[in-house]
Amino acid sequence: MQTATEHIHLFGIRHHGPGCARSLVGALEALQPDCVLIEGPPEADTLVALAGAEDMEPPVALLLYAPDEPQRAAFYPFAEFSPEWQAMRYALQTGVPVRFMDLPQTHALALEKEYEAAEPVSVETAEETATPDKSDHDPALRHDPIGWLGQAAGYGGGEEWWEHTVEQRQDSAELFTAIAEAMAAVRAEIPSLTDSFRARREALREAFMRKTIRAARKEGRERIAVVCGAWHVPALATMPGVGADNELLKGLPKLKVEATWIPWTYDRLAAASGYGAGVESPAWYEHLWRRGGRVDPAAWFARVARLLREADIDCSSAHLIECVRLAETLAAVRDRPGPGLTDLLEAAGTVLTTGEDAPLRLIRRELIIGRRLGTVAAGTPTVPLQRDLERRCKTLRLTLSPTREPLELDLRKENDLARSQFLYRVRLLRIPWGEVTQARSGKGTFRETWALQWQPEFALAVIEAAPYGNTVAEAAAALARRTAVEAHDLPALTELVSQLLLADLPAALADVMQELENRAALTGDIPQLMAAIPPLAQVSRYGDVRQTDAAQVLQVVDSLIVRVCIGLGVACRALDDEAAAGMAERISRLHTAIKLVDQPEHRDDWLTALRQIADADSVHHQVQGRAARLLFDERHGDAGDTADRMSRALSRAVAPEAAAAWLDGFLSDGGMILAHDDALFRLLDQWVIGLSPDHFIQALPLVRRTFSTFPWPARRQIGERVQRDADREPALRTADAMDDHWNLARAEALIPTLSLILGIGAETQ
Amino acid sequence: MSQVLRQHAETQFAHELEELQKADTRQRPTHWALSPWAVTDYLLGIRLDNGFEVTPKYIGGRRLMEIAVATLATDRALLLYGVPGTAKSWVSEHLAAAVSGDSTLLIQGTAGSSEEQLRYGWNYAMLLAKGPSREALTPSPLMRAMELGKTARVEELTRIPSEVQDTLITILSEKTLPIPELNSEVQATRGFNVIATANNRDKGVNELSSALKRRFNTVILPLPASEDEEIAIVQKRVAELGRALELPAEPPALKEVRRVVQIFRELRSGLTSDGKTKLKSPTSTLSTAEAISVINSGMALAGHFGDGELKAGDFASGLLGAVVKDPVQDAMVWREYLETVVKERDGWRDLYRACRELD
User: Fold this and answer.
1) A710 and A764 in one domain?
2) In what order do the strands lie in the sheet with A405-410?
3) Candidate from A332, A350, A353 with C-beta closest to B67
4) Same domain, residue pair A656 and A742
5) What is the pTM of this model?
6) Would you list which residues of chain B are within 8 Å, Cβ to Cβ, of chain A?
7) Looking at the structure, do residues A125 and A251 belong to the same domain, yes or no?
């Protein structure tokens, strides 16, 4: 549209709208501007030329950051179908000067810093959770008013509405006038921002845009093309006095800012990954862009078919025909000229799936959001992450050496602890620079040995990690969150938890713990849950050298223990020998962990669960034995309980191998304890004594089998112990072991004589 | 007042259909009583230009009904799919009434359904007297629908044995029904279509063959979208049933209805209502209809054996029965839910204790 000055042409666009991009290219070609101004950070003016480079492949983003505080940054992502990107390409190809005209980030970031200083947020969390998007805090409406207009008109989204109402006219000049009018109406209806910070920033941004336009005009440009978000058009159409804008822009705070290009991805472009100003369907938009904006259901369903077939999901040509027919009928029922994305998706869901979610999820992931990863041209300035890495290395006195070098750390020293944490963070960035060659065994050791070797290709890995954050800590935390979401099982998550503890990233830890808790709630895999508890219990009880906050870990441990106690009975059923051995081992370890956590409530729940498996019929005998033993050690229930369990488990009706397994489980922690634990010894002793001769002969091999696994010194000590007892209570012993065939009186008559012969009379008297 | 216990949709809502027909100026597919737009409006309710109010028959997403109507308009067969109690048969009846003005061409699928019930049978007296002829043939509702160009309904499609289901393949793809005994066939008239309903809990019992599956468009009817919507449905139905059964109890307090609905929704979705904690879901359906019956039986208990006011102890056993269908897996899920959610929740101590007492 032409403004009063007749030289300024405003193009209000929809960010990342392919329809807009196409209309814009047409309008620019018609206008032949001699200057292009784009809503974007002026600091990046020098970088625009790179957008024309051969090896620059969108999606990419302009990254503006404060080198002294790299977590303070703004991102301006561009896809191939972004109107701004197309405007840049047009200007570069035709050699027209192109300039960014948004409020410089040197001010914007400084303002933000001032604002945060006024309303402080915890520094620690801010470092890790710095959101990528600070370029636009405005509510969704301000960012995408056209999308909202579309929704108000009953369309699935702004793109369909654009397509159906705007595009069909094929007259791009008229079209941008219409947009300006619509926006003027919308802006008149929407109440102004209540948040003074945002209101001020919006005013500043628009003032600066006007300032840039005036500057271009002063240079004598005749046909200035201004490309900005549709929302801003009315503010740029009416130019207030120069004085007012200059007054507004006077004395703004400043911050040193640098700019670079970084690769971006479609899923970060998508709203689904939490990027506030994103688009819902980058891959769909790319499809639209490549096909000149026309929705061709047949072409799109053909891609769906190929995708589904690759995933081994049936999808015949007949299916596709029905999909196309339904999509078109749906559009007709809804009074639209042609199907939009929602119609296509609903048709696919109705025809191709019978209530299954998976195919639709697949389509969404691959064809709606997409996985494209951009690349940046050679010669792009260093990314801040790389700088932060180098700077940290310097302060921590670590060198990026290509030869393998060992590093000894003493974690009691502050600097060494910081180095260890830093190395773990770099590992979380998926850069295998350092490797722990000698882990600290147990909590008593403070030594950690690393081997460091920097490979040249790690530089690429750094660039790949760059979108996740500008400092090592920030990026490591963001990547860890991502890994947590993608993790397949609980052990992977607990491993991640320990990595995060070592890397000292508490905020990310909290999120991963939440994820762990969610997964724990859903999994039916009790062994996995059991395996997850001990390492967490360790941390929650003792903390570690690094003084991690234990409370959040403890909370998850609590819920895990409750779940295990409930599910243990079922998990112990129908186990084969191997699985049972593993389960018995896990139960022992968990028992130690629960004692470590030391909460009476858990102890009671746990012992109840143990009693259930100790007394259940369908549980493998080795597991039962272990449970019985742990109950015995805890002195749970009556003293006679364990004796009863033992005699039941080892009674004659039980198959010998089952009885042996029970005994194995019961005595699996070796013979030494048996030699020294009086109660345990007595228990076993009483059982042996109580056996009838026949049963004793039957049971002997079983007992022998278990005892043979004990180390030799232990066996000797048990033997000595038996001997000592026999010596101490000979009368009891002989009386108990006596057989009916013995005549005691006659035997006793022999003793004096025998004593005399053997010369032991003096001792027994 | 009609003596009929339950009227057909087209009789009960005859007036609405008539008004819609009068106001309907848009193009109608051949043999359709209303245009697709008017059918959608009939299902979802609308206020006509002349001020006539069409009541909503289905409360839920407009898009779903649009897909269903568009499917019928493409002459593809429609399969309404969902858990029990999501108004599948109800929607099918009203769709048939609105599209064909006739919802009676119905085949109830059962494990004992035979091919004759889907195709045609014989009048044996006539067959013996006259030999094989069209007069001796007794057509199925499906065959009649083909001849008349109307909508046939098949209820509980997946209860029908697979080999009998496959009879539908020729009918749906070739739109003909061969009669080899007479060396003839019935060709479907325009307007003919089939609406089938199936229960996704019966999945795997008589799974549709992929050949048949391909001939159906599947529309999944969901459970009520919001908690408040579901509470409203439960309260309304409980009050109606309570009156019909002449229960001596007071209508239940909103608090208890809310609790039961919340428990049902949480277990069903596997997520607590605050969205913070994930849960395991039991194998039971936990449909809205079951929530209604839990409250009803609780009211009966309260009325006959309690103090007439529905309390946690009155519906605890019903709740347990509704949730725990598989004695091992579901019992575990329920225990976990009790210990991790119910126990911790403010003001739910009574419910926790009542449920623990049942163990």
Assistant:
1) no
2) A405-410, A447-452, A434-438
3) A350
4) no
5) 0.68
6) 36-37, 40, 63, 66-67, 69-71, 73-74, 76, 79, 81, 200, 208, 210, 213-214, 217-220, 270, 277-280, 328-329, 332, 335-336, 339-340
7) yes
